[in-house]
Write a structure and sequence with these properties.
It holds the Pfam family RimP_N. This protein is of the alpha+beta class. The protein has 2 domains: 3-85, RimP-like superfamily, N-terminal (GMP Synthetase, Chain A, domain 3), CATH 3.30.300; 96-163, SH3 type barrels. It has helices at residues 3-7, 10-25, 56-73, 96-101, and strands spanning 29-38, 41-49, 81-85, 106-111, 121-129, 134-138, 144-148, 152-157.
Length: 164
């Protein structure tokens, strides 16, 4: 990896920069990009989204669009597997704009360290989200919890079973 890639936030950020204009041309948006090692293998995962939902053709189109760019730019020195998919119903909220877009939605929060009562898993409704990573979840009628994104291993949307 070149020093230039490191300065720009690593492989995932560099790939996001390459993928975003391609996604826009296809009527898609980039939800998230992850570059992870699982066992002995490396995976580059690009999660795409669009207003009326992502289909298999969208994933194929994005793969065909990004593949030659990755080959040409070569931002990843080791072998890896490219995966393009939808973030899914229980999508991870990663960026401040993800939190802002889903205010009022049910979420599940996994904490890195337990709360005083030993809880590590919280479920509730996302009430508030700030640009600095602070957010608030309504746990029940009387209790809400204010957290920092950095305190959480994940924040995921929950399928909204009570909307029907």
């Amino acid at each position: 990896m070149s020093p230039e890639t490191k300065k720009k936030g690593g492989v995932a950020e560099r790939v996001r920069e390459m993928a975003e204009p391609l996604a826009r041309e296809l009527g898609l948006s980039i939800w998230d990009v992850q570059f992870l090692k699982e066992g002995a293998d490396w995976f580059l995962r690009i999660f795409i989204d669009k207003e009326d939902g992502v289909g298999i053709d969208d994933c194929v189109d994005m793969t065909h669009a990004i593949d030659p760019v990755l080959d040409r730019e070569d931002p990843i020195p080791q072998e890896y597997t490219l995966e393009v998919s939808s973030p899914g119903i229980n999508r991870k909220l990663v960026k401040p704009e993800h939190f802002a877009a889903f205010l009022g939605a049910p979420v599940q929060v996994k904490l890195i360290r337990p709360l005083e009562d030993g809880s590590r898993l919280l479920q509730g409704v996302l009430l508030r989200a700030e640009e600095n990573g602070e957010f608030e979840v309504q746990l029940d009628e009387e209790t809400s919890c204010t957290l920092q994104k950095k305190e959480c291993s994940s924040v995921n949307l929950l399928e909204d079973d009570f909307s029907e």
